[in-house]
Amino acid sequence: MVNSKWFGDDKKKLCLDRQNKAKNSHVPLSVCSRIGTPQTKKYISIYEPTVSYYSRLGRVMVTYDTKKNSWHCPCARTKRSCPHKYVAKWHLFQTHRELFRKVRSTEEGKHLSTATEDKDSNDEAELGSQLYPPKDIQKLKDITMYIYKYKKLPAVLPEHLRLPSMEKEYPRHLIPEELMCQHCPGNVPLSDPVLITQKAKILTNLCIVQDVSTYCKSCHQCGAQYRYQEWKDGLHNFNDHVLLSLPLCLTIRNMLQVHTAVSRVIEYLELTTGQRFPSADTVLQGYLHFEAVFQGACLS
């Protein structure tokens, strides 16, 4: 693989080190699963000496999609490579040499023209750009129904989540709390968090929190996708780019009940905070999204 420039000497050393560790532990370094797998995907079980949430049994399952020319490992982001992927490539290079004909399947680079270089390329970057939000209508429905079923806000919110506070600090990295797939039987671990944006905004009664990072996760087995939707943090995620604090949602509700338009609420907030808010329509849609997952009675 080094001679063919699929990866360099440093990756070769990494793979050999992993092989020695597996030998010392008297376990196979890599095993290809052939039971119940689609023809377009290869599943390779890789030895992992360190126990983690993705390797509780000392193994990590790496997936190679021959159709999309992409790799997945639960220990790494979609666009990143890792030791498990390198070992899996080494395994397939020996058992399925026909898969390594022209271009490399790697994770991180900008152009396929770098395929002969020892870098990470963008086949998974393209997959990552389509990963979330999905374009498939059924997958969008599945995400929506999961939020509606499992992420509803309670009819009565705790007081510390209802009232605005200058001392309130919101998390800057918003990651789905799920660790295991909620659709697959058994304990199927989700992928590591995949970054959606670093420029999300949290709208509050007192300010706009800028440069917030939002993430999603996915299940390599069924393809289910999960986004951040944790009301216990005092937040409502509208579209992963705009989030509303719960006190702001309740303020908008109260203002609508006294016949004050959302546009006037936004005008008031901009005058008070000195910051420019998203359009009134965007804020209104975010608020209506909040009401859609609220267990209380709908507004009349």
Automatic annotation (TrEMBL):
<feature type="region of interest" description="Disordered">
    <location>
        <begin position="106"/>
        <end position="128"/>
    </location>
</feature>
<dbReference type="Pfam" id="PF18717">
    <property type="entry name" value="CxC4"/>
</dbReference>
<protein>
    <recommendedName>
        <fullName>HMG domain-containing protein</fullName>
    </recommendedName>
</protein>
<dbReference type="InterPro" id="IPR039598">
    <property type="entry name" value="HMGXB3"/>
</dbReference>
<feature type="compositionally biased region" description="Basic and acidic residues">
    <location>
        <begin position="106"/>
        <end position="119"/>
    </location>
</feature>
<dbReference type="InterPro" id="IPR040648">
    <property type="entry name" value="HMGXB3_CxC4"/>
</dbReference>
<feature type="domain" description="HMG">
    <location>
        <begin position="170"/>
        <end position="285"/>
    </location>
</feature>
